[in-house]
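U., I forgot to send this yesterday:
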Amino acid sequence: MKELLDHTTNTIYSEASPDSGYENIQTEDWQEIRTSRLFYTSTEKKNWTESRKDCQRRGGDLVIINIKEKQDILRRMKLHGDSWIGLQSVNNTGGRGAKKWKWQWVDGSELEYKFWKNGVSTTAEAGSKAYIDQQFLWMHSKTELKHWICEKINISHTGVIHT
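Result:
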């Protein structure tokens, strides 16, 4: 099987058959799920800002779920409860100084792929941060303590890989 890393999205595309599934590999506290990314799920709870700082201390950041495939990958992981993700409301000041809020990922990218829980308001408000529940549906809050999910680049997956 041949796999190719897209360096712009850090995603590995492969010629694998659709029924090949994903292979979980435990690397210390990080979980690799057959991608170019490693994921960490916390067992303790913190607010969003402290959770992000913890991810950064570990060499990553809060997880960015910008494609359906990553949402599917996360579904294979063990969560310890509602968990912060790297989506936050940011000030998008419009004309005449009016404050408007929008959702934005921690890497500065725009929110395109969405998986909000039914009935949850998807309007960004000042101070809102997103999290996923045990069913991997998105919700948001401002000041709660939650678990969190970090991601970082798996440096063993660079360039073209032949397996």
